[in-house]
Amino acid sequence: MPLVVPGLMSKEGGDKGEDWMGKLAGKKLGDMHDEVTFAKQDLPAEHRVLQPDSMKTMDFKPERLNIHVDEEGLVKNVTKG
Predict the structure, then answer these.
(1) Is the dihedral angle over the CA atoms 40, 52, 63, 59 positive or is it negative?
(2) Through-space distance between the first and last CA atoms of the chain, rounded to whole angstroms
(3) If DSSP codes are grouped into helix, strand and coil, which group holds residue 20?
(4) PANTHER family from the entry (predicted)?
(5) DSSP code of residue 42
(6) Is the distance from CB of 26 to CB of 71 less than 8 angstroms?
(7) pLDDT tens digits, one per residue of 2-31
(8) Which residue of 19, 25, 36, 67 has the fewest CB atoms within a 10 Å radius of its CB?
């Protein structure tokens, strides 16, 4: 069953990168939720995980969530587009 995060999945402006940053900062992405992991299946359908020095397309998709991780896989930044 997917995690319901009030305000993050709603249409009332809650789908901002800053809101996601509050939920993902300092966590790893994985299969299940716990204190240090956020489940990948609860991310929006339009998302990509960007590792340091990885190549990325420069197309802009306003609905896409860009999750920037460090070398250890910890989320360091979240942006939209």
Answers:
(1) negative
(2) 27
(3) helix
(4) PEPTIDASE INHIBITOR I78 FAMILY PROTEIN
(5) G
(6) no
(7) 555 554 444 444 456 789 999 999 999 999
(8) 36
Q: How far is CA 35 from the centre of its chain?
A: 16
Q: Are 62 and 80 in contact (CB under 8 A)?
A: yes
Q: What is the mean pLDDT of residues 43-59?
A: 94
| Strand extents, DSSP E, the chain | 28-30, 37-39, 47-50, 65-69, 75-80
Burial class (CB in 10 A: 0-12, 13-18, 19+), 50: middle
Helix, strand, coil share of the chain (percent; to 5): 15, 25, 60
Of the listed ranges 11-15, 35-39, 76-80, the one predicted with least confidence: 11-15
Helix (H, G, I), strand (E, B) or coil at 22: helix
Which residues lie closer than 8 Å to 24 by C-beta, 6 or more apart?
38, 67, 75, 78
